[in-house]
Amino acid sequence: MARKLDDLLERLGDATDLSALDSAVFDLRDRYDVEHLVYHSVKSSGDQWAALTYPQPWVDAYVENNFQTIDPVVLSCFRGFTPVDWKRLDWSSRPARALFGEGIANGLGNQGFSLPIRGPSGQFALFTVNHRSGDDTWGKFTRGYMHDLLLAAHFVNERALALDGEGHAPHQALSPRETDALTLLAAGKSRAQAAERLKISEHTLRVYIESARFKLGALNTTHAVANALSRGLICL
């Protein structure tokens, strides 16, 4: 894991209030040298909290015009669980094109990816990285840093919930093999590489990962890795 992410995760762990977490989000943006970064959480009760670097006039216009009802990014993420690259979404409708154009006019970059996060008791969060670049540069960036930023997204969400009094539930202990499997994945190894390192089949590895995911109450493997790291169950 890159040193810049190690430092950021340490700072997240030291955050004692939401204001400090908000500052950490700005720091994350600067460390990865992107245009904007957004974390927005909505609880089932309707309570919301956000840490974002978008210009305030754009935020005000977005909220005032209820753009979330036509935003292809929000609509896609609300239906799915995996990261969404903005360029792969359908922007063909007139409202969507107008929304994108207005965002660019208000200082947003032309590239972005967003990660939906689903937490306890119906909580839904969106983590977005936005930048201004060509397709080749953006592709290189996402290939190089996607893993880091997905982990950071789950760490931000975990910390926001903890600071808001909704930390994770007590966990069951991971077995040594479950710990080893998640540690290798956190280090950036593929499933095939992790299985080879542990001298087990990929099928057996999958069993360990699913068991760890269940114990950690995680929605997917990335969430399990992030939870295990944030709880100190695995170390890099």
From TrEMBL:
SMART domains: HTH_LUXR
Family annotation (InterPro entries): Sig_transdc_resp-reg_C-effctor (IPR016032), TF_LuxR_autoind-bd_dom (IPR005143), TF_LuxR_autoind-bd_dom_sf (IPR036693), Tscrpt_reg_LuxR_C (IPR000792), WH-like_DNA-bd_sf (IPR036388)
Membrane-spanning intervals of the chain: none
Keyword annotations from UniProtKB, A to Z: DNA-binding, Kinase, Transcription, Transcription regulation, Transferase
Domain (HTH luxR-type): residue spans on this chain: 167-232
CDD domains in the record: LuxR_C_like
Molecular function GO labels: kinase activity
Pfam families in the cross-refs: Autoind_bind, GerE
PANTHER family (UniProt xref): DNA-BINDING TRANSCRIPTIONAL ACTIVATOR DEVR_DOSR
Protein name: Histidine kinase
Source species: Jannaschia pagri
